[in-house]
User: What shape does this take?
Amino acid sequence: MRKKRAGFTLIELLLVIAIISILVMRITTAINPSKQLADTRNAQRRMDVQTVLNTVHQYAVDHNLYPADIPALTPKEICIKNAPSCVNGVDLDILIGLYAVDIPSDPKATGTGTLYTIVQEENGRITVDSLGAERGETIRISR
Assistant: This one.
């Protein structure tokens, strides 16, 4: 007589491995960590742009004018706090202390720029824009 052995056959094991690998691929695609990270960085950029705009407007309310470095009609990049050379950018260090703890910079910014631009348009509105927005988004706020 033949004894029946307890266990799985090779086909059963291969079938289970195939099903598990399909589920793992679907879950990884659904979660998509790179998309989640890009969305998180874009949310930070929206908050930073709003912060810059709020501090500039608070300064304008207190002094009846915008900071002198804000360019008219042509956007320029905002320099980081205490930038060693802020020649072609906008120095908003005057806002640090009373209006802001720091000038925010893009999560991926390197060097002396924040990857945020600022401009005063013809109608007098201030526009702050993020140059580093990911996934094709445009992050721009005007007031």
Remarks:
- The chain has one domain: 33-142.
- Helices lie at 10-31, 33-63.
